[in-house]
Predict the structure.
Amino acid sequence: MRRLENRTAIITGAGRGIGRGIAECFLKEGANIIIADCNQEEGFKTQEELRQQSENVYFIQTDVKSEDSIKNMVNRTVDIFERIDILVNNAGITVFETLENATIEDWDNLINIDLRGPFLCSKHVLPYMKKQKKGSIINISSNHAVATLPDTEIYAAAKGGVNAMTRSLALSLGRYGIRVNAICPGFTDTPHYRQWLEDSNNKERVEREVKNLHALKTYCTPEDIGNLAVYLGTEEAGMMTGENIVLDGGVAARLYHSKYC
Ligand code: NAD
């Protein structure tokens, strides 16, 4: 018996990157998968590629900024698989911009995707998880929720909000057998991360420096995040709730960065 056999998981933003990595790990463990992504092209491509492993993968185009779109996705999930066991709130964007240049549109867009999205998705899966008296909500936060950098105010505020919301939701939903946890990844090799490297003025140097920040001298892969998400989705994590787990290869363990240590 695989660890997620007969479980249904909604993964937002699973068209690519960390969300896709989580979907692949869940699929290996036998889960039914809903890819809830706003990007139609990436969503269908991922659906077709993952269907080579299992037929139980469906892409439902979803914009987590829109409550109607989320409601439609949840209703269709239940039509297809008749249950919802795991919600992974992964869809997210970043804005790295100075306070002078950041706009109210940047604020609204990021907060609506990265913070309001997880709130609304959790709200709309709740009736089904409540009926089943069981469920696991996994929020993909960031190490920026714990310690951050200049010019990341909006992203850091959203992810800090996700961590705080995770704790409160865990307290609210524990009585229904629903567990809520957050994974706070560090640098993770995704298209988004690759683009950030490309945009830097010296890709090779930046990549070398990034790796050097890590105790393990390399950054995470989407599969690393997926493996932890699998654990949080299973009964092995039956007493795990309200946790914000940093998964960053040891970046946050260091007191400060110096060429001497
Ligand atoms: P990515 O840009 O590679 O993929 C994000 C996916 O989310 C895309 O498929 C995109 O289409 C989808 N998406 C964006 N807006 C959406 C919306 N409104 N509705 C539905 N889907 C939407 O990003 P990634 O690097 O895989 O990041 C995934 C999550 O992990 C994000 O929440 C991000 O903040 C977090 N994270 C990433 C890193 C990293 O280094 N890559 C580190 C820490 C946290």
User: Anything to note?
Assistant: The domain at 8-188+221-253 is CATH 3.40.50.720 (Rossmann fold). The helical segments are 17-28, 40-50, 67-81, 104-132, 153-173, 191-199, 203-213, 222-233.
